[in-house]
Amino acid sequence: MKIAVLSGKGGTGKTLVSVNLASVSKNGTYIDCDVEEPNGHLFFKPEEVKRNEISVKIPVVNQDKCNGCRKCVDFCKFNALAYINNKVKVFETVCHSCGGCNLLCPEMAIDEKDKVIGAIETGSSEGISIITGILNTGEETGVPIIKEILKMQDVYSPVTIIDCPPGSSCMVMESIKDADYCVLVAEPTLFGSHNLSMVYELVKLFEKPFGCVLNKCIDGENPSEEFCTVHGIPVIESIPFDINLGTINSNGDIITRQDQKYFELFSNLLSRIKEEVGL
Amino acid sequence: MKLAMPVDEKNLESTVCISFGRTPYFLIYNTENGEHSFLDNSAANSQGGAGIKAAQAVVDQKVEVLITPRCGENAAEVFSAANVALYKSSGNSILENIASFKNNELSKLVETHAGLHQHNK
């Protein structure tokens, strides 16, 4: 079972929820798809880490064969190519590696080369498999890394938790594509409820079963909770705004490994999700 | 000499646009005879790489000079490859910038920004 954890913005508690759901599962897998800032490994401190570099294809133009027809330049929807001084110029960081220019060139003047954009690290922590996607700084998109991760065997464990990137971009869509259930994490603010609405639209579009975890809950009004009520979104857990939780979390420790109350909270949450999925 | 400038509207009384890649129009101006035209910037609505596409369109006009308030590093790379000189606009009046350029009063644009979509350091 694959559970994706997402939110419309950073800092709502995706990693807190993901790490602890994985931690209470038996022999589960934790996947960090937040490749721009992967941080789940800071909590799990995985052992026996293996690193595999991930490459994408980037066009290389054979200028002798090029006749300057500009079909590649006109085709590129990302504007990664320009034709200047009778030469095709490739902007590697803008290229999305679609391969279109290579297919299209009537003179077969475009080859491809590998470019390393990041890596996948695998390791384990107390029986949990930990997979971390890492995108190098300055690269355009982490989608190729997320695709590679989701092809791995480890993804098919009894419980796989996918810690998504923030927002509702291509990288989030790639991360939730094969998920059986989506957990939307939301903060109790007006801004939080707006961000919740973004991911709510996304999971509806993908026709995924989903529920909301309200994080940092305090007494008084909670705009995210109101949003859930209005739109009939099941609130599957509420996590309190708790200094003890905050302290343990900021020390890079896993709350469910230290505090029985939270072990029960996240175990109940995992059972609830299993029920929702029908397992 | 032909020069280009990002502008907000299609007339010489209009103003210099604060954006290069996403300006609605480019003024193409011949300093020898005052002949000029306005070019629609088809890159304005691009998801990404607007600067590259806009620079390509400007270079294709065979201009020698671009006057702009700012320029991204990808566009600057296109201009450098095409030997187009970049000058920094002064104030937002199109006509005053043309006059200043003719009097050698504009300075070269040396700082380019890293772009709004990338996270290059």
UniProtKB/TrEMBL annotation, chain A:
- Which intervals hold domain 4Fe-4S ferredoxin-type? 57-86, 87-115
Q: Name one GO molecular function term.
A: ATP binding
The record's section on Pfam families has: CbiA, Fer4
Alphabetically ordered keywords of this record:
ATP-binding, Iron, Iron-sulfur, Metal-binding, Nucleotide-binding
SUPFAM superfamilies assigned to the protein according to its UniProt record, in alphabetical order? 4Fe-4S ferredoxins, P-loop containing nucleoside triphosphate hydrolases
Which Gene3D superfamilies does the UniProt entry name for this protein? 3.30.70.20, P-loop containing nucleotide triphosphate hydrolases
Kindly give the InterPro entries that the UniProt entry links to this protein. 4Fe4S_Fe-S-bd, 4Fe4S_Fe_S_CS, CobQ/CobB/MinD/ParA_Nub-bd_dom, P-loop_NTPase
Q: Which residues form a coiled coil?
A: none
Q: What is this protein called?
A: ATP-binding protein
Q: What is the lineage of its organism?
A: Bacteria, Bacillati, Bacillota, Clostridia, Eubacteriales
UniProtKB/TrEMBL annotation, chain B:
Q: What is this protein called?
A: NifB/NifX family molybdenum-iron cluster-binding protein
Outline the extent of the Dinitrogenase iron-molybdenum cofactor biosynthesis domain: 13-102
InterPro entries hit by this protein:
Di-Nase_FeMo-co_biosynth (IPR003731), DiNase_FeMo-co_biosyn_sf (IPR036105), MTH1175_dom (IPR033913)
* Superkingdom of source: Bacteria
Residues of the signal peptide: none
One Pfam family this chain carries? Nitro_FeMo-Co
